[in-house]
Amino acid sequence: MLDLVGLGEAAGAFTTAFRKMSVAEEEIAEACRRHWDDRKEVWNSFKLLDPGELSMLDDDVYRAHCREILERVVDGKDTRPGTRAEVCAMISRMTLVTRLQRDVELLGLVLTDEIFPGRGLLDGASREDYEGSLREVEAEFRRKLAKPERVLREDLREPPAFFLLSVRE
Predict the structure, then answer these.
(1) For the residues of 61-75, what is the DSSP string, one character each?
(2) How far is CA 72 from CA 5, 19, 67, 139, in A?
(3) pLDDT at 8
(4) How many CA atoms lie within 13 A of 141 on its CB side?
(5) 3-state SS class at 162
(6) How confident is the model at residue 120 (pLDDT cuts 50, 70, 90)?
(7) What pLDDT, on the 0 to 100 scale, is given for residue 116?
(8) Whole-model pTM?
(9) CA 89/CA 99 separation, integer angstroms
(10) C-alpha separations of 99 from 92, 103, 109, 140 in Å
C-alpha cells in the first residue's frame, strides 16, 4: 500500500480517490462482461463516472451511480441527468437543513429502496404504488443535478488487450 505518512488530511483524500477509481474500474469491467458488444463505449466511460459530491459517501452508493451511468451508455441514453444516487445524496443533505416536503421525502425512500433493495423501507410497496407527483419531482431533481460535461467523447479508443483478456470469460 502507498505510504502516505506526513501528508495529513491529504492522505485521506488520496485514499478515497483511489478507492473510488477502483470501484469505477470494477463496474466498467462488469459492464463489459454484461455488454460485450458495447465494450468500446463502456471502456471509454471512465471520465463519466466522476464521483463529485458522492466521493465522501459509501462505496455502494457510488457503485449504484456508476452502474446507472454505464447502463445509460450501453442503452444510448443521455448520461448528463443526475442519477438516483445523486438525487438520494441531495435529499439526504437537504434533511440536514430543512424539513422535507412529503413527496421529496417519499422520493428519497423510493430511490433508496431501488438502490438498496430488500431493506424494507417501503414495506413491500413499489414505485408504482407512489407514482403521481414523484415522477415530476424526480425529473426536476435529475434536471437540476445534471452535469453538462458528462458525455461520452466522440473519438472512442479500443480497450487494450490486457483489459479485454481480464474481462472476457
Answers:
(1) HHHHHHHHHHHHHHH
(2) 40, 23, 9, 16
(3) 65
(4) 23
(5) helix
(6) low
(7) 85
(8) 0.84
(9) 15
(10) 11, 12, 15, 18
**Across all residues in the chain, what is the average pLDDT?**
86
C-alpha cell at 119: 431493506
CB 150 within 8 A of CB 70: no
Q: Angle between the 134-144 and 102-115 helix axes, to the nearest 10 degrees? A: 80
pLDDT value of position 1: 44
Q: Could you give the CA distance from residue 106 to residue 125 in angstroms, rounded to a whole number?
A: 12
Burial tier of 142 (Cβ tally within 10 Å: 0-12, 13-18, 19+)? middle
Q: How many CB atoms lie within 10 A of CB 49?
A: 24
Q: Where are the domains of the chain?
A: 7-79, 82-149
**Is-contact 70 25, C-beta < 8 A?**
no
The Cα 61–Cα 59 span in angstroms is 5
- Report whether pLDDT(10) > 90: no
What DSSP designation does 56 have? G
- Return the pLDDT at 162: 79
